[in-house]
Amino acid sequence: MRSVDRKWIVNKKPNSNARIRLFCFPFAGGAASVFHSWISKLPEYIEVCSIQLPGRENRFSEKPYTSIGPLVDDLMKDIIDYFYMPYAFFGYSLGATICFELAQKLRQNMHPQPMHLFISGNTAPHIPDEEIIHNIPQVQFIEKIRQYNGTPDFILNNKELMDVFIPILRADLELEETYRYSCCEPFEYPITVFGGEDDLEVSIEGLMEWNKYTTDRFSMKMFPGGHFFLREAQIPLLQCIVNELKLTGNMLKKL
Predict the structure, then answer these.
(1) Candidates 33, 40, 50, 93; catalytic one
(2) 12-27 per-position pLDDT tens digit
(3) What domains are defined for the chain?
(4) E strands, the chain, where?
(5) Model confidence, pTM
């Protein structure tokens, strides 16, 4: 690997004892730091590598992507250097779409495959978004973001911060809302799906449709909360991830 911390991959705590890498893909408007608290809460054998999209934190000066294809092509060039140990993907909302498309691209290019795909807060890729908001007028856009209950009030109520945040969020939502699924063969590794019981944006039926994308084990776990249930359910969610990785690892040893 050419470096520990490149622009796409943020590894806050490199771990020479790690046996699995967990690549974490954030939601729309989110940054790599969303997953930094996971490092101390996961076993030492799991190394957390967060994906950093342009336009935020250490990539603040870079223009955000508005199309999935170019994003995945560029991300793949960096991430393949990290595949010298078993790895898994965790994608949250928009991050689920990105890691799904990346997994397809990796397979097409004969790169090492993930051992497990964790999907959170997003319907299966063949189900189109019911509502398009990335290009609606500013007042309505801000109200929609407020309804999602994922952006802190100190940002929503600060015009200067919102002037910076809104273009990033619009670009991320354009990524998601203009995405069009291309038919593909199911993956040959397990998929685990997580959802919020009170999520008004993502239905249980839409989550269940992910079972079509694997020929291996499929499981789904619902947690109390809305679209951003991750905040309240972090510990039980991480325990589910650990349990699933153990199960997948044990199955691989038997092959």
Answers:
(1) 93
(2) 888 888 999 999 999 9
(3) 9-126+181-254 (3.40.50.1820)
(4) 9-10, 20-25, 46-51, 87-92, 116-120, 191-196, 218-223
(5) 0.93
